[in-house]
Amino acid sequence: MPEALLLPPVPARRRVFFALWPDHATAGVLHSRAQALWTACGGRLMRRDTLHLTLAFLGEIPGAALDRLPRVAAQLEGTPFTLELDRVGSWHGHRIVWLAPKNIPPALTALVGRLGSALNAEGFELEARPFSPHVTLVRNARGAPPATEAEAVHWPVAAFSLLESVHRSGVAAYRLLGTWPLAGE
Ligand code: 2AM
Fold it and tell me: Where's the active site on this chain (predicted)?
């Protein structure tokens, strides 16, 4: 059989999004919080290596369009900031349990605004719904989280990333496509 036929097929459409990806220490703290909430609410614990905060969800885009995204990201200006994740909540009848910041840092709002404008200018369509920063910790939970206040998780943010949703042997995973520093305005 020719070698090319043995390679996995390249999907014509790719499911991608920009996100904040936690450093190792922050991911560890988020994971501990996720475990505590999962113990209280049941459902499906998000794996430590999948925890993130979505900035812009592009959905399924043609594979060829993917090449334009690194250029968009590299041109963005932004400043580093610290996220204080101190609010617990749930959506969709408690099925999605998340951690969010009570106060959204202006630098995060500015980054998401610039990213959205730059993506729109490149012809990418984003959802019109307002940005609601959160880290999903548990899915398919069976009950409401026990409290809405949480001791803050301090997340120092100095970069943002482009991710692709992939399925490996039926398990959802994210592939890192690129990371760009918030190097100042
Ligand atoms: P969620 O964690 O609240 O489900 C990969 O799917 C990431 O993109 C997840 O963080 C997910 O948010 C987010 N996402 C999925 N569909 C989305 C949509 N239609 N609009 C905005 N974000 C979405």
Answer: 52 (proton donor), 134 (proton acceptor)
